[in-house]
Amino acid sequence: MANSALQNVVLPVAIIAGCFAAIIGLTGPLDRGKPKLADGFTDSDLSMNGSRLKGFALGMEGLLADWYWVRALQYIGDKMVASKDANIDVEDLTSLNPRLLYPLLQNATDLDPHFIGAYSYGALVLPAIDKQKAIELATKGVNNNPNEWQLYQYLGFIYWKVGDYEKAAEIYKKGAEIPGSSSFMKLMAASMKTEGGSRTTARTIYAQMLSESDDQAVQITADRRLKQLDWFDERDAINQTLSAFNERNGRCANSFGEIAPMLMQVKLPEGRQFRIDAGKRLVDPTDAPYKLDKDKCVVTLDIEKTRIAPEN
Prior knowledge:
It contains eleven helices and four strands; from the N terminus they run αααααααααααββββ. The protein is mostly helical. It folds into two domains: 55-224, Alpha Horseshoe (Serine Threonine Protein Phosphatase 5, Tetratricopeptide repeat); 233-300, no CATH class. Strand 3 (291-293) and strand 4 form a beta hairpin. The relative contact order is 0.07.
């Protein structure tokens, strides 16, 4: 009996583990020996469709799904590090040509249909690459996990990102009907119909993600988006103040110091205030000093120092 168990279970598992170890051991030498390819051809197609292993991996589907998941995380990170563009637009990653991200996440969720982390990461990153693929992956998550209200939140988030507020409201409403769902879902279902494209709605969505998600990638993205929204609010307030100063004095301010008294009277959303660093410089939400374009008389980001994406 013991010998039978050894032959039928332990031995195959040991063989699979050994094969993975061999693959990992060969990865370094093989990568070093590969000829350098043009930028558009650096990605090789996935050699294995993970979904075909389902049912044949001797219960190791979860481990394989984790492997695809880690590869997906590393894949985008490596793309960003290797990019020659110092100011990558996080809302449009197509310039990185990350064509393997969807297949990696697809394999992970084929092997483990309940892999919530893979669905949530896809909901955040895929819209910047392929919006339709993002919707497909998030819909797959909802279909495989109909009682996980967080997945309805992510699917609603994607529809909100693409500007389909009616569909987003429908998805949020369905998620709100799941027992134990956050009151946020009902709030969003209503907000989508009244102010879907507003900054207030965006702030509510990202603040919810930041406070309730356990996924570090989600938290980092949400924090960055909230800081960007803060920048938008501050930019509008500073530019309005610069315009008022210009009209009153017939010239643009020479520095932010000239309009400081006027800025201190401005009420920013959420009760926030403008920040001044130790050098008495007006700084953005990531603590990088703002710059003054005196020719256009507008505030700009210091692209070399800020961590905010330079979007309009």
